[in-house]
Amino acid sequence: MTKITNILRRSVLAGGIAALGLTLAPAAFADELEGLKERGVMKIAMTGQYPPFNFVNDQNEVVGFDPAIGAEIAKRMGIEVEVVTTAWDGIIGGLLANKFDAVVGSMSITAERQKVIDFVGPYYNTKRAFFTVAGSDITTLEQLDDAVIGLTLGETHDEWARAQGYNVKTYKGLPELLMELTNGRIDVVINDSIPVLLAMKSGQYDLAEIPAPDAEKFPAGIAIRKGNPELKAAMQAALDEMMEDGTYMELANEWVGGDIR
User: Fold this and answer.
1) pTM of the predicted model as reported, rounded to 2 decimal places
2) Fold match between 6-125+219-256 and 126-217?
3) pLDDT, tens digit, 9 for 90 and up, residues 178-195
4) Which of 54, 79, 219, 246 would staple 64 via disulfide (CB 3.0–4.6 Å)?
5) Full DSSP string of the chain
């Protein structure tokens, strides 16, 4: 990740913005909605490493709740989607560099990110959670000072954990994080709660959640470039319609087992 100011370094914004020399001002160009409709395709980005929200299946296809939501929004706008996978720590930089049109990858809506990008949504809500292997001696948050903490590079949890002074190791995505935890290379994983709880429920991992009653909650949104009010309104209208007509719940039941709004 490119080294710039500390506040941007700690957020997912850092790498792409510094590399491109971009400012925080809204882009001074025409709304992109018309161009997307002319092309007939909207490129949506995600890591492909965040099951069940986005992951690569046995057919080498990127599937999950995120691409399903993105595809349904595009369908209602009269266009198709093309999924682009990219590393999380450079995903906002890629969006600002026009490598894709939107990020539909479970991105938390934060005030810092809203300085640079706009959000459609939220389309679900989650919270910060702490996990260790079942039977671990680590049972309280007070013990994290002496633990090795695993996180996905560039997530909001990465910034938060560093601010606490924790001993942090970063990885590309959730599957790698959980493998490292299971193999004993890290002591605790900090992540959004839902995907890890679902992995535990399915029997994939024998983990324990460390109680954190005051853990921060996060709404997840779809990121687009600033200066696109028509595109934002069209995507929001499609999302709202999905939630009202039952399509959202069909997708939520299929991929995450219930309502996560």
Assistant:
1) 0.86
2) yes
3) 999 999 999 999 999 999
4) 54
5) -----HHHHTSTTHHHHHHHT--SSPP-S--SHHHHHHHTEEEEEE-SEETTTEEE-TTS-EESHHHHHHHHHHHHTT-EEEEEE--GGGHHHHHHTTSSSEEEEEEEP-HHHHTTEEEEEEEEEEEEEEEEETT-S--SGGGGGGSEEEEETTSHHHHHHHHTT-EEEEESSHHHHHHHHHTTS-SEEEEEHHHHHHHHHTTS--EEEEP-TTPPEEEEEEEEESS-HHHHHHHHHHHHHHHHHTHHHHHHHHHHSS---
